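A quick aside before the break. I want you to see a complete sequence-to-structure record at least once, exactly as it would be stored in a machine-readable document. Don't worry about memorizing anything.
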Amino acid sequence: MAQSGALAARRIRCWVKLTGIYRFSTAPNFADVKPIAQTLMDKVPGQLIWGSDFPHLSFHDCVGTIQPYNMLGEWAPDNGMRKRILADNPARLFGFK
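That is the input. The structure line, written in tokens, reads:
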């Protein structure tokens, strides 16, 4: 069967903001999020951006800003991937020059 629409044109219109892990994680230290993040990095590395979700509103007693940011270093130990997520992809998404 032939593919149609955006899939056939390989136009990706979906972006994933790696943030808010404390909203769905059920494991200590958010260990259950790492496989999800790594799969996204493997499959759609050009569609990922980072966000802190600061000030964490309803979760301020569970998490700070530093811990989720440090998780990115564990998920993406490669400097190039982190640069892509933190700078290159957002620049492309938002049209920064």
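Two observations worth writing down. Residues 14-94 form one domain. Helices lie at 5-9, 34-43, 66-75, 79-94. We'll return to this after the break.
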